[in-house]
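Notes for week 9. Today we move from apo structures to complexes. The key idea is that a small molecule is not decoration. When we ask for a structure prediction with S-adenosylmethionine present, the ligand SMILES becomes part of the input, just like the chain. The input block below holds both the sequence and the ligand string. Read it once before you look at the output, and try to guess where the molecule might sit.
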Amino acid sequence: MGKTQKKFGKGRLDQYYRLAKEKGYRARAAFKILQINQKYGGFLEKSKVVIDLCAAPGSWCQVAASLCPVDSLIVGVDLAPIKPIPKVITFQEDITSDKCRAQLRQHLKTWKADCVLHDGAPNVGTAWVQDAYTQSELVLQSLKLATEFLVPGGIFVTKVFRSKDYNNLMWVFNQLFNKVEATKPPASRNVSAEIFVMCRGFKAPKRIDPKFLDPRAVFEDLTDPTPNYEAKVFNPEKKKRKRDGYEEGNYTQFKSMSVLDFVKGNDPIALLGSMSEFKFETPEASTEQPVENEEAERHEKPATLEELRNELKTVKKLEETSKEIKELCKDLKVLGKRDFRLLLKWRLICRSVLGLDKKEDGTPEPEQDPTANMTEEEKIEYELQRLQDKEAGRRKRERRKKNEQRQKEITRMQLGMLNPVDIGIEAAQVGSDSLFSLKEVEKSGQLETLAKGKMNVIVTNEEANKKEVEEIEIGENSDEEADRLEDELDVMYEQYQGRRAENDAKYRAKKAREEQPDTEWTGFEEPPSESDVDDDDDGIKLDEDYQSSSGSESDDDHPKPKSLKLLTELEDNDVKINGLSKTAHKFFGQSAFKDIDGLDSGSDSDEAINKIVELRKTQYKQNGDTGDKNKAVSDKDDKNSFEIVKEVKEPNQKSWSDNDSSDDEMDDKEHTGPNIDIITAEAMTLAHQLALKEKSKADVVDESYNRYSMRDRDGLPQWFLDDEDRFSKPIRPITAEAAAAIKAKLRALNARPIKKVEEARARKKMKAARKLERLRKKSDIIIEDPNKSEKEKAESIQKLMRKASKKTTKPQVKVVVARGANRGIMGRPKGVKGRYKMVDGRMKKEMRALKRKAK
Ligand SMILES: C[S@@+](CC[C@H](N)C(=O)[O-])C[C@H]1O[C@@H](n2cnc3c(N)ncnc32)[C@H](O)[C@@H]1O
């Protein structure tokens, strides 16, 4: 594929771009210096020595060469190589290096420059590694060279960017030049932040204060010679939020602050989101990144250093300030939602210990018993309210837990994970109360001990209860707050995803794909009726997949409502059908149990299982006898598996045995399943293995029960789940044959002629056919001519054929490249006869670009 050059960025194909091409300038930047030169009285025409700093590709040098007096000296330097320009000396060097200065000196000898031009911009050349300087520093470096090489009264033209350094630079220019003016030539795009500064009348002082040319002094010291950090801590100035970049004076990504600021601050979420570290130091010691301390501002009396130290001591001493909390504070950027929640809970504790907890409106919370001033009746009411709130909180937690459980169950059902545990025994009971529940261990505070390997420590019931009570108490106070914060975090993540979707088309496409239901695994699906497919949206389809997995009988027994929602379906999960739990009922409702009558009538399970075994045996026999096409893929299947049961093939159903040879006979029209094209080496490997019977359907199903499929997603933050989905997936083996097959397939695909070629061929064929037709007609007329003898007729037809088969050659147009002696000439180039066409390297690209634009 040809590399298409981006020509539309910043509207590259503007008039100056075209004009530069026309005039043979190497860059449109040439017009900037032309316009500056024109505005300031044609200083280039009077300059006998010109230095062009950061000159590549060389358009400013070209302009200088054309405008400066004939015998003038023009020297251009750049990090990137510059192709030779007549009358210009160029070399490749970093303008900030001593080598560059030495080389300039060598070229200039004893002369001084009338004019120093500088159009440098870091990271636009090819030498990325060396481009370490910022624009402002580069300007200062060029000024340094200018001061060394300029004649008194000389001119310095430089490019600066609108930034906070702009004023400082202007200040320095004004110290060294008589007239300093900023200008933006029309050729400079409005969208660009660049401005050109015209410095005239170099003062050429005998001694220049090195500070003027020292970036540290110019960009920092001038703005704030003696920063008073202490003042910043105790009387933090209100900073304006910079929505368009880094905070002023803060260009580092790593931000740390005192943990006290976090505890006392009003917006813990914002701090958790923006900071990298909370230090266990007083704010005094962590002044590198002064932050807004609104709390301190709100206080009438700012805390003294001594008070801060005491507060920090108290916080450190707290039992809750565990090792884990300290660890979490060290790197906030890697924390997950659970960690944030821990930190926020811990913050609330610290706040209550420091007596900082205040209501939103600022009124202090009553510190003593709130019922102290109440009447007996009020006390009872208060107590009732408290208990009600407590109960509501408990119910809310329970509800959430139940929902999570339900979600888990749905996922299991969707994955087809039906095992004895799920039949009759609801998975809910296995979750949190199980013996090895880490949550329980964590709650009882034994996680650390377990992690160290001391398994013999046993928690007494009393201790565990005490801890639990404490936890609940803390939880109750902060639960609402934590819920709110959790919701906020979720919203923030959603917003982030939204922003990403806005900017990233690939991401949007991926999300859209993810939202499509997975069509490859149809499970035990019944063929959906046409109306179902047409009417229902994705959500309902999911619902129906789920429904259909319960087999066709269930359809008869319980007529399926059209828009049955999944949640409503599961809400009455406890309902018993035919003495079985709903899950069990669904399991036995699959088509595998279709022919077992006893099941529906509620016969006992032993009887049902006996029937299944019986049925399996007969099916097995049948398969063996008749060599049934639909027999299970492998005979070495596990004895207990149901694969061996003859599959009732529905016309629309696509099954694993589709790759059997019998399928060749299947009518294509009938086959309405998805036409799956094998495009990955993994899939091809699997297909080979299945075709060669190296693997059975059961193996494939078995393999799908891996550590990735049983992933517990409950309570995990979405960002984490997203990451897991991206990176934590099984690596399927591929064989060399499969890889070769896919490669060959792709090669064949690439070798296919593109549509245009195919069309051209067809046109050619059509023309030939038409020509033949015409010939036939003409020869018919000749044959039917009664006035001609047979000989004459034969001659005429032969003549006709000769004429038709004669190749018509188009007159050749000679292509002359406008290079060397032919460059820029008008009229016919020397030694060229006949038709010719002048071309240059750029023309082709330009024409293509124009066509593209016109399109
Ligand atoms: C906008 S281009 C200059 C265009 C030039 N005036 C022209 O008309 O062709 C900026 C140039 O600055 C150069 N540059 C950036 N940092 C440099 C450095 N430290 N030393 C020398 N050249 C540098 C880049 O290599 C790049 O070619």
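The mean pLDDT is 71.
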